[in-house]
From TrEMBL:
Species in which this protein is naturally found: Candidatus Rhodobacter oscarellae
Annotated keywords: Cell inner membrane, Cell membrane, Membrane, Transmembrane, Transmembrane helix
Record's protein name: Inner membrane-spanning protein YciB
Matching InterPro entries: YciB (IPR006008)
Primary localization class, coarse: membrane
Any one GO cellular component localisation term in the record: plasma membrane
Location in or out of the cell: Cell inner membrane
């Protein structure tokens, strides 16, 4: 872990470039879906909806941006690796069975898996968030434990919410939720933790609080 952190410090990249690599595939998926959602494509005698074709394009695009991020920074987080693995798995099932429901399940599995991992750490009296984020967000252990419990509950909520939306609403509604709802939800959640950060933040060497 120390080697990964040191390498990441040596190979910092422009924050806007990192944001583009992180969000680019999601935005591309949304734009492509809007253009192809009403189209039907026949390949080798089998009809595929625009959603299936967009999913097929999303998989290599996410793999490419993850690889580029690794080449530029020298490291990729375990969360990004797990996300890529689940995208390949559920995206592959979606294409193989020509059934969009598999890809819609992906966020459920991602958030459920993250919640389970964090939950195991909590049972052990540990915060896995602290392990991977303490360098950029110095905070007392008690604060990390509180944040980890909140994040675990938040991930469970997102997993359940995704299930409700894809099972009860249209594909358009789910795509909008996946593209904008999840991103906005995560942003708002961490904004609401500002008081926690202030209460348990550790003052760094330059006099700033983490």
């Amino acid at each position: 872990m120390t080697e990964e952190i040191d390498m990441a410090e040596e190979k910092k990249i422009n924050p806007m470039l990192k944001l583009a690599l992180d969000m680019g595939p999601i935005i591309a998926f949304f734009v492509a879906y809007l253009r192809l959602r009403d189209e039907v494509f026949t390949i080798n005698g089998t009809e595929y909806s625009g959603f299936i074709l967009v999913t097929a394009g999303f998989i290599p695009l996410l793999a490419l941006t993850t690889f580029i991020l690794y080449r530029l920074t020298g490291t990729v987080s375990k969360m990004q690796i797990m996300t890529l693995v689940l995208v390949v798995f559920f995206g592959g099932l979606t294409i193989w069975f020509n059934d969009e429901r598999f890809f819609k399940m992906k966020p459920t599995m991602i958030y459920a898996l993250f919640a389970a991992v964090l939950g195991v750490g909590l049972l052990q009296g540990r915060s896995y968030l602290q392990i991977v984020m303490s360098e950029v967000l110095p905070m007392k252990h008690e604060g990390w434990m509180i944040l980890t419990r909140r994040v675990t509950g938040f991930f469970v909520f997102l997993a359940l919410l995704n299930e409700v939306i894809w099972r009860t609403m249209s594909t358009d509604a789910w795509v909008n939720f996946k593209t904008f709802g999840l991103t906005a939800g995560v942003f708002v959640f961490f904004m609401l933790q500002s008081r926690l950060f202030q209460t348990y933040g550790i003052e760094t060497a330059d006099g700033e609080e983490g």
